Amino acid sequence: MKKKQWQGWGAGEQAEQAEQHYLVQPRALAGGGDVRHVSEFLRASGWRDKSKSGGPLHMESPDRTVRVAYDPYVLPGGWTIHGQADGANGEWSAHLGRQTPVEIVAGLTDALTRPRSAHAPNVWAPLQEQNWHTRFEGAHYMATSPNGTAWMQYHQGADGSAMWWTGAQDKQGNGWTANFTPNTPMHLVQAFSTELASPDPVMRPRGRVPHSAQIRTWSVSVKPSQLSAWQQARITAARAATWARNSARSTRPRTSPRPHTPTSSARTRR
């Protein structure tokens, strides 16, 4: 999935004619969406595209410690985000099903490009703010969406390791699941839960809306130039944030003391 494959995303040379899209709610059941929503933001944030032509997506962070991959060609397929051990935290990974909406995936992957907040993360807070039902179920702590189609579950094993399991499913059995290994940084899981719980609908083009009795849709007319502008705004924001971080690093004052240079002789007063 190299850059040349992204040609045609947005208006391009198309005539300025409105196209039918749909707003879908709840977003957890909207289907996978356009992978470029994730990959183009990472590329604009300085990530390297390591994908082979015609193959699955494979991107690497600037410091080479995190990899994001999307492979639709294998079963069950989907997203894999892998982080190396960094001393304070051990190696970790997240696996998200192929139908996980890209807007929810981006909650996690966008957070990989930003400095970590000083506030202690709370995975449950975004869910509770949107009236998700939280409760204990045996050894699990569980949160389910108001309509019961999406969930997030926490389980602590006998060895003390914590596992997160989440997903969404309609009554027809369509949906996805995702899991995070014990060492996954909690601020990333919170970023994911924030997008999972968001009540905002997401947009899908005609023909890409799942057949589900549990979703609501609104038909909207969108011009290619509008779609391109919305996508470009997200990319521009990523570039601006990356430029600001890099500039801050380059202009940061030195914190190490200057070496002391003794004088050859002391000046005396006459």
UniProtKB/TrEMBL annotation:
InterPro entries: DUF317_SPDY. Residues 241-250, 261-270 have a biased composition (Low complexity). Residues 60-117, 144-202 form the DUF317 domain. Pfam families: SPDY. Residues 241-270 are annotated as: Disordered. This is DUF317 domain-containing protein. It comes from Streptomyces longwoodensis.
